[in-house]
Each structure stands twice: as structure tokens, then as C-alpha cells.
Amino acid sequence: MHPEKKSSYDNLSRNLSLTVITVSFAPLILVGGLLFHQFRSIYTEKVFAHLAEVVDKHAANINTFLQDKLIEVQYISRTSSFEYLTAPGHLEKALRGMQQQYGRIFVDLGIVDSKGRQVAYAGPFSLYGADYSGADWFRNSKERDAIISDVFEGLRQSPHFIISISQGQGEDRWTLRATIDFLSFSYLVRNLHIGQTGFAYIVNSGGVYQTRPKDKRNQDLELTPRRELTRPESLAGVSIYESFDAEGDDYITVSAPIKGGDWELIYQQKASDAFSAMTRTEFVALIVFLIGGMGIVAMALIISRKLVLRFQAIDQESELMSKQIVETGKLAAIGELAAGIAHEINNPVAIMIEEAGWVGDLMEDEGRELPSYAEIRRALTQVGNQGRRCKDITHKLLSFARQTDSRVIEMSVPDFIREVVEISMQQARFAQVEFALDLDESMPRISASATELQQVLLNLVNNAIQAMEPEGGKLSISCTMEDGQAVIAVGDTGPGIPAANLGRIFDPFFTTKPVGKGSGLGLSICFGIIHQMGGDIDVESTVGVGTRFTIRLPMPSPSWQPETRQENRDD
Amino acid sequence: MTDATVLIVDDERGFVETMAKRLEKRNMTVFQAFNGDEAMVRLADHPNIQVVILDMKMPGKDGLVVLQEIKEAYPLVEVIMLTGHATVPSAVEGIQHGAFDYLMKPCSFEDLNQKIAEAVELKNEREEEAVEARLSNIAGRMG
Known about the structure:
The complex is a heterodimer. Helices cover 50% and strands 20% of the residues of chain A. Chain A has helices at residues 3-79, 82-86, 90-102, 136-141, 182-190, 271-274, 276-366, 373-400, 413-430, 450-468, 499-502, 522-532, and strands spanning 106-112, 118-122, 146-148, 161-167, 174-180, 199-204, 224-228, 239-244, 250-258, 263-270, 408-411, 433-439, 446-449, 473-482, 485-492, 536-542, 546-554.
């Protein structure tokens, strides 16, 4: 294979595979990307909406909880007087009642007078007489009747917050203070857990933690807000941020205001955790996409390779064909050349033979006394023989390169046979061969190359005549229609062909004639011509009885136009 | 009286001359011509020519044309064709135009001799027939 050609095939193969791959991938990537993007945005929205909803619900829960506790404390302070509550044992009783009613959420109760002194106390700590005049909540309670404080450690050195209800004016103002169990409050926040990293806490407006996240890891979580994400419109006050921690991990922060905006419930989760389901789905989709893609690429490569191989084969075939055509043309040219040369050689050879003959004639008359007479005779005979050899060679050449006229014409088979018989009549007469013709005059005309068919028939007739020499015999030729075919039979009453030779008589160069008499090409040329016409030739022979050749030619349908073999080489 | 009176027509001078010598050796009267026109002249000059040996391939007038002319002017003269190669069509045409037979060049001298003898024989037969016919014609008219 030509290297340049090879690379062009490689290019073709590459272009084919690239085209197939591009065409296959473009819609896949477009649709895939669109779906991917859609899925992503929808899923993200859904996750955010869900988080916002959860946080909102929890914020509402916490609000309700605080509100309930406030109302419960309010109830005690409304239904009991300062005097009643400061009387010994009453406050304990109230605390016990509340704990029985609502569980151990209330840790203790206290009554604080207008100066900030605790004048009554019920609970686990000994805080009777404690001075709250400096406490934030107490200072605030001067302006507001109901207060829920921030979480602080205060006197008891443990985080808690208080609910205080104040009544009265000036000197008579007193405050009922209840401490809320921090653990049970924290629980409200802590049970807001989603996934592996989601946790919630509360900070006040100053950013001070009101609850501690349960997880030790996140004790010192410092987040840098990066951007605010879309606020769910349905949930007022809930905002969603994306933020980083110190290690660069992505976090989602959802916050909702509680306690009238004093506090904020903040929920945080690693983004990777929140979107783990999406990531997993995307991963699976990507794997499928990759495997599919590899399949497409492999198929494209294989198919293009196969196609190109097929092209190569076709190209090679056509190359071979054109080579054959060139070869055939060359052969034809050589044949014509040979024919021309043979023609030209014929004349000088003829003259040489005649001259030798003439010398022979003269020797007969005048040279009989020459001492070398016999030798001269021998030499002359040799010249004659060699001349005849030349003749045989030129004739063989000419019959090979015979410029046959393969124009297809319509012809009548009986007329055509009579014509051939006329040509062979002389030869037959000297061989004492009689013709016996049985021609079906009514058979339709056939379309064939007259000269080629003539060559075939002449060959068969000559063979038959030569086979019957010198005793003579009967040469029967018949033509008829059989199964839609024209059948021409040539039979003789010669010695027949031995069975051993019967299979070989159509082989080229097979001859039973003595050397120099036959070229062994006649029958093989006949065979070739008849097969080229789409016909058939076969032989049956019985030794001692005779031989019979049968030619079958296809009859053209009336519509058939002979145009395939319009090849006139006479010009 | 020679065995036969022959005219050889061929453009190959050497061939014609040698052939003529050989045929004369065999007791024939031989005339020579080197092209078609010359052949017609010879025939006109010597009406006793019985057989013409005619080459098919000649420059100028083709053998077939000459054959037709001969047969037209001298129908009783027999013509033996010599072909450089037995091209079947020309041989067939020759036979159809009334040639006696054809031989392939170079032909064996014996074959040619035989053919000339046969042709002369045939010509004599025909002439006898013609004479007889004329005689019977005359006899018929006399009777």
C-alpha cells in the first residue's frame, strides 16, 4: 500500500470517527447538560426550601415554648399577690405545682422586690436574699413587665435564662422570676438534626451563643458568610446564606428570628452533606454517561475502521480492475502488432519456401550428377520444413490476434449453417465427407456475433472432416429450438474420442494431432466464445461410432437490445 | 499443349517470379501480374488463361474487388485465392463471389498444384457442359 494513500485512509477513518462521535455526543451533552442543570437548580431549591421550612417550624416551636412559659409564669403572678407568694412555703408550693403540671422545666422561682433583692426563693439553690440590682434582666424589668432574658451564668455559675413578670409601680413594683432548665430548652434546639453535619444553635442579637451545639467539633465554628441565597418568599424572616469555615468547607446557614427578633435560631449544615443525595445521583449519572461515551467512541472507531477497510478493499479491487483493463488493452495491442508482423513475415517466408522449391526443381533436372546431390536435397527439404514451421507460428499468432468482429446481429441459424457448409464444401469433398443437414427452418432468429459463431462452427466442422479423413463419412448438422434455447449439433461418423480424453478436449493446448498439425487451441477458443455468449457447448462420443458436439445458445427475449457487446475493432 | 494456363497476381514480385518458374517447370503456361489492373490487362490479352491465382491483400485494388471484376468479365475463368491469413469473412465472401477455393499463404507448392489441376478439370467440365448445351441448342433448333 502506498504510504500517501495509507495516510489518506487514516485521515478518512479519523474524520469518520470524529464525525460520528461529534454527532452522537452533541445532543447527548446538550440534553444531559440541560437536565443536569435543571435537576441541580430544582434540587437545590428544594433542599433550601426544606431547610427553611424545618428551621421556621423549629423557630415557631421555640417561640411557642417561650410564650407558653411566659404565660405560665404570668398566670402565677396574676393569680397570687406579693404577700401570698412571699409567705413561707407558698412559693415552694407554686413551684411544685408547676413542675407537676409542666415537668421539670422550671428550676426555681423567686420574688424580687423593687430594689432588686430576692425576698422569696424556691428551688435547688440557696439564693434567698440574692441581690439582682446589677443584673441586666432586672434593669430591663423596670421598663417592661414581661421579660425573657438572654442566657447567662449569673450567680449560680451555670448557663440559664429567666422569665420575669413585674407588677406594680415605684416602690411597690415586684417581680416574679422563674429559671428555665437550660437542658430541656437546649433539647428543643438540639433535636434539630438533619444529615450528619446539620446542627442548630441560638445566638442573641449581639452574637452571643444562647445554646451550645452538642457536637464538640463545632464548638469553635467560625463561619464567614459568603453570599445570601434566595430567601424563600413563603417564610418571612428566614434567610439562607452560604458560608465557609476556617478550613474552607462550604456550609449552608439558615437563620430565623425568634423571641421577637432578640434571638436568632441558626441552623448550619455542610453543603456536601445537604446535597449528598444530589451528588450521589450526579455521580451515578456521570458514570453512566462516561461508560456510554466510551461505548460510543469505541463503536465509532470500530465502525469507521471497518468502513475504511471496506473502502480500501473496494479501491484495491477497482485498481486491480483498471490494471486488468490496461493489461487487456496491452494484450490487444500486442496481438494486433503480432498480427501485423505475422502478415509481413508471411510473404518473405513464402518466397523463401518457393525459392527453395525452385532450387529443388533445378537440382532434379540438372544436379543429379553432383556428388553432394543428396546433401543438397536434404538441406532444401530442411529449408522447406523450417519455412512451414514459420508459417505455422505466424498462423497461430494470427488466429490468436484475429480481429474478430463481435458485433451482435440478428441472424437466421439455418442460413448461417448453410454458409459455413458452403465454405467447407471443397475440403469435405476431398475428404469424401457427405453433409447431412437437418435444419429447422421455422426456428426464430437469434442475436449473436456472426463472425465468432462462424469461427466456432467452422472449427467444429473442420475437426469433424479431419477426424473422418481419409475414409470419409457422414457429417450431420442440425439446428432446432429446445427449452427456449437454440441448439446446434455437429456430428460425425469418425473414430470417436477415447473416454480418457473426453474431459480434456476443451483444455487449451490439448491436441491429439501430430506436432505441427494442430495448436490445441481450437476447441478451447470455441468454448470461450460460446460461454461469453452465455451459452454452453458439450460433447458426447463413442469410440468407433462417432462424436457429436452440441451448442446451446440463449434465445433473446424480443425486448432485449444488444448493446453490451457493441465493440467494433475494425477501425 | 500445356497442362494449364495460369495467371499469378501478387504484389510480391519475388513470389510471383519464382512461382512462375516452378509452375512452368511443371508444364504450365504462366503469366504474371503485380496488381489488379495489370491482371485485367493480361486476361484481356490472353483469353486462353484458365486459372487465376489471386492474392487477397494487395495495395490499390483489393483482391476481392479484382475477383469480382474477373468473374464479371470472364465467368468461366476459375480463381484460386491466396490469403495471408484465413480471415473467415474474406474467404467466405470470396467463395460467395465465385472463387474456386482459397489457400493460406505460404501454401505448400503441392497443394497449389493440386488445386490448379482440380480447377482446370472443373473448368473443362463446365466448358463441355456449355458446349453440349450449345450443341443441344443448335440440335434443338435444327430439329
